[in-house]
Amino acid sequence: MMKDVSTYIPYLTAFFSAFVIALILMPVAISLLKRFNVMDIPDKRKIHKAPIPRMGGIVIFTAFAAAVVFVAPHNIKWHGIVLGGGIALLIGCADDIWGVPAPIKLIALFALTLLIWQFGIITKLPISKLFGIPNGPLNVGCNLIITMLWLTGLSSAINAMDHMDGLAGTVSLVAASAYFAVSIQSHQLAWAVISLALMGSLVGFLCFNIHPAKVFMGDSGSFFLGFSLASIGIMGGWSPNPIKAAVIPIAILSVPIFDLIFVIISRKYKGITNSILESIKYCGKDHIGHRLNNMGFSQPVSVFIVSLVSITIAISALTIRHTKFWESLLLLIQIFMIYIIIAIFMEIAMLNTIKVYYINKKRSKLKK
Predict the structure, then answer these.
(1) pTM for this one?
(2) Would you tell me how many other CB atoms lie within 10 Å of the CB of residue 308?
(3) How many Cβ atoms from other residues are within 10 Å of residue 214's Cβ?
(4) 219-242 pLDDT, tens per residue?
């Protein structure tokens, strides 16, 4: 019986140590950020009304790293994620404080990919088998490029999702919880522990980030979360089938990925921006949370709706692991159809916003 209980100790330690550390350090961080004036100032592109401390991501990372190193002080792959996450955090901190141009951030994230490759963090897609090329440097090179795109893309997606109190943290928590569930299903206890450490740090952070937020994670937090979630998605053996192993983390994290892709295409199609790069750099109130808010939902309800979508898609992703080819295809079609429905509602929300704007503008002219 004692042996059975002891098997749960690493899980409990990982989650609760990260949670307690985040809970204790966050008030200290908020006080220091206010003292050094590291604040997110409201403007027309943002929905908060008063200055809020940012860079709460430092505490998320600290809690996560401390829990991981404490539970597994000699695991080299985990340390690779901690080291890479720390560097991603520093890139985000520099952006929070000085504002780093987008091309420089992308170059830094690409360089980070080369570093974590040394720790074995790289996709293992069977490129040679798919395209009939020899299994050698070309195969490694293709996987390295895919890893770069995955890490930078997901970091950008989580960063874009951080546009409403508690939204990026909640979506990341759902993803980490899904990773934990798959880890338990596939008996990958090591990845279950690291997922729990991330969950604990996020729960501690969300105690201060739910509406009305007392602190924002900032680019430091979104870059760290994007990097860590992407890295766990790469390293976890989510299925014996390499295609399923690639699809599962993409599906789990598809909400922020969809949001980023949708607004980029929408901005370019509507002529708001002139290029894809400009669409990526453009900051506007046209993300999924903003559009739900424009439909009349409050911030907490908007976050709840997006969280429900994330959980629904995550459940489908967990199911894919156990299905045959045609069943998996049907689940992917189902996920695709869900996003089509969401896209329709997002467009309706934006059209309603434009309509209300012109009605109010007309009324103001009549009053004059």
Answers:
(1) 0.91
(2) 11
(3) 15
(4) 999 999 999 999 999 887 777 787
